[in-house]
Amino acid sequence: MHRYRYRCTVCRTTSPVVHQLDSLEAEGTAHRQAVHGGHIPDDELIGEIDRLGRWYAALSPLAALHARIADGLSDLRNEKAMGHYWWASAGAALLIGGTAALILLLVAAAL
Q: CA 49 from chain center: how many Å?
């Protein structure tokens, strides 16, 4: 399940979490019309967030990979909730670590 937010850095306001791109567009449009007279504020953020409320675009590649895996595992239990289950975060870390170890073993065996 994807989660999205709209953030206006001029007003320093953030929309509630929405699950549809249409709802996200409606949030941004309503804010621009009501507060900014239809103008687009500088540095506004519109994008996908993880279950902890962090913007995927602001995360490092490894942290974004961990967040996506943990989000996917957490969504198996409850799609609409926020926050990671401890087992989902641990599972994501084990999966990434195990994959890295397997790649190192394959490279070492090839040499």
A: 3
Q: Give the per-residue pLDDT at 100.
A: 96
**pTM, two decimal places:** 0.75
Torsion of CA 88, 73, 65, 19, to 10 degrees: -120
Crossing angle of helices 61-75 and 86-110, in 10° steps, is 130
Angle in degrees, CA 71, 77, 83, rounded to 5: 45
Strands 45-49 and 13-14: unpaired
Q: How many residues does the chain have?
A: 111
- The fraction of the chain above a pLDDT of 70, given in percent, is 100
Residue 67: CA atoms inside 13 Å, Cβ hemisphere, count? 21
Determine the longest span between alpha carbons in the chain, in angstroms: 64
Cα-based distances in Å from 1 to 54, 72, 78: 15, 8, 10
Tell me the C-alpha distance between 74 and 89, whole Å. Answer: 8
Residue 39 has pLDDT above 80, yes or no: yes
